[in-house]
Design brief:
The structure is a single chain. The chain folds into two domains: 73 residues, Arc Repressor Mutant, subunit A; 49 residues. The chain starts with a helix and ends with a helix. The chain is elongated. By secondary structure, it is mainly alpha-helical. The longest helix has 34 residues. It has six helices and two strands, in the order ααααββαα. The protein has a two-stranded antiparallel sheet with strand order 1-2. Strand 1 and strand 2 form a beta hairpin.
């Protein structure tokens, strides 16, 4: 596996957990301490620390040291790599959907109107 593939794997693995996604959402608002990050969750501080280690290993957060505080901040570079990877598939699906739309438009124009549709059209013309 390539280094880029390993980074993507680590990022997706970190993002797979809803607690870690919630932590990232909080950090998107700005730098905060581990204690403040742990506050909304019904889990111990060591459990939060394990989540933070996973996020840190994936490169999604950075932790500093400020006297007794260990502030965390979002490191969004791996999210850009995920976005780039997903955009390849987005283009693929957009092309497929464009072809489907063209096919459906062609199919609709080739189908003669049903007797019921003809009656409505004829009734409108008479008005």
């Amino acid at each position: 596996m390539t280094q880029a593939s390993d980074r993507l794997d680590a990022t997706f693995s970190a993002l797979a957990d809803p607690t870690r996604r919630a932590i990232l959402a909080r950090l998107a608002l700005g730098e905060t301490s581990v204690g403040d990050l742990a506050q909304p969750f019904d889990m111990s501080l060591p459990a939060i620390s394990k989540h933070l280690k996973v996020l840190e290993r994936a490169g999604l957060i950075a932790r500093g040291r400020d006297a007794q505080r260990r502030p965390c901040r979002l490191a969004a570079e791996p999210l850009q790599e995920v976005s780039d990877w997903v955009s390849t598939y987005r283009r693929f699906w957009e092309q497929r959907l464009d072809r489907l739309e063209a096919y459906l438009q062609e199919a609709q124009s080739a189908v003669p109107p049903s007797p019921r549709q003809r009656k409505r059209t004829d009734a409108r013309k008479r008005r």
